Amino acid sequence: TSFTDATRLPRLPADFVWGASTAAYQIEGAADEDGKGASIWDTFVRRPGAVRDGHTGDIACDHHHRFDEDVTLMRRLGLDAYRFSVSWPRVLPTGAGRIEPRGLDFYDRLVDALLGAGIEPVPTLFHWDLPQALEDEGGWLNRTTAHRFAEYAAVVAERLGDRVKRWITLNEPFVHMSFGYGFGVHAPGRALMLDALPVAHHQLLGHGLATAALRAAVPGGQVLIANNCTPVRLRHDARHDTDVAAASAYDALHNRLFNDPLLLGRYPDLSAYGMTDPSWGGIVREGDLATIAAPLDGLGVNYYNPTWVTAPADPAAALPFDLAEPAEPYERTAFGWPVVPDGLTELLTGLEARYGNDLPPVWITENGCSQPAGLHDRPRIEYLAGHIDAIARAVSRGVDVRGYFTWSLLDNFEWAEGYHQRFGLVEVDFTTRQRTPRASFEWYRDLIASQRS
Ligand code: GBH
């Protein structure tokens, strides 16, 4: 089926929220302006070999100086809502204690510009740019960081809470734990493998403590978290029980380790899959799970593609699964990721099946793809259309999905890939910082308009 005619997509509920997402370090630039402190990404990008071609987010899209222009683009798109992230070290240069008023002023101006354009601001409080000063004390391996996070959440909420009602605490705690502390391919660049597991608990505890702080500071506010979720698939040629066991181990580590404590108040038993962390027993303290399981107003889901796994080739390997390539010849994005829209229907109906009444309304807080540079990005249009259709299918099967935020508004700093991957509806020239809307921008604008008419 081709849905490149936006008006032919199935209709989502009338109050469905159409949005776009970005993150501070990926777009803002102004890395040491207005008193901002260093984050772990400012440090990591300077490590030789960490980022392709040594790219950094020092300037990025220069959004810090050009946000008015970007809000104008959003208004042209007709967005209902914009998901951005707040840079913790812009607000608290050393992570705690002294507040930098110019940091808060920036987000204050951004929020007012959005509201003036009729766009709901939806801030994420942590999208991976931890203040370096906190990393120097162990980062998310240190339980204190969870308390610091809640203090920071209160500072931001006290300033913006009169105008901002929907808040997202963390972005993808799984990816931050695994890429940042497990494999060391993202900041802070630590390769601790399963010894990174305390980072999961401390982030979730931070989420729970921040939730309480947000509820106190923002009467009538809503609190969400954005989890990276993936349906786990076996290759069609899988034959062994060990492959099935590997898939469920991967699901436990990637999905259930984060969704179960939030929604059910308990952790999956990772040791049953051979994933043990000797310190885990001392990490999870009495009362923590009740803090983490505080009611959520919504579950944010970031979906890119399913994950294929097999039993580990080496049974003595540290992890009880091997990541695999699908055997089927899926279309690929410029990043090489397979394009699998029905994986999103599978993911959403799977969440409903697992959590039932414990599942709050779902928001797709990220979904999109990297495509080659250029304005004629038909594959991106097909990607978006296929995934929005996949959401409509899940809704028709009873999943309560309230909104969709595409990743991303702008081409931006794609972490370890630097500027080599382009996820934007808007092309950015990284020499002049000129913005040019792509065909997908016009398509998304038409989609939003047709869904409203
Ligand atoms: C998100 O992470 C981030 O929140 C965002 O900042 C980022 O820019 C965006 O996605 C795009 O990367 O090789 O087929 O196994 C996404 C986390 C982890 C999702 C890696 C896809 C690998 C796909 N991603 N995963 S595959």
Automatic annotation (TrEMBL):
Question: What is stated as this protein's family in its record?
Answer: Belongs to the glycosyl hydrolase 1 family.
| EC numbers for this chain | 3.2.1.21
Keyword Glycosyltransferase recorded: no
One Pfam family here: Glyco_hydro_1
> Which residue ranges run through the membrane?
none
Per its UniProt record, what InterPro entries does this chain match? GH, GH_1_N_CS, Glyco_hydro_1, Glyco_hydro_1_beta-glucosidase
Ordered alphabetically, the record's keywords are: Carbohydrate metabolism, Cellulose degradation, Glycosidase, Hydrolase, Polysaccharide degradation
Q: Which domain of life is it from?
A: Bacteria
Show the Gene3D superfamilies listed in the entry.
Answer: Glycosidases
* Annotated catalysed reactions: Hydrolysis of terminal, non-reducing beta-D-glucosyl residues with release of beta-D-glucose
| NCBIfam families according to UniProt | BGL
Organism per entry: Streptomyces poriferorum
Q: Upper taxonomic classification of the species? A: Bacteria, Bacillati, Actinomycetota, Actinomycetes, Kitasatosporales
A GO molecular function held by the record: beta-glucosidase activity
Q: What is this protein called?
A: Beta-glucosidase
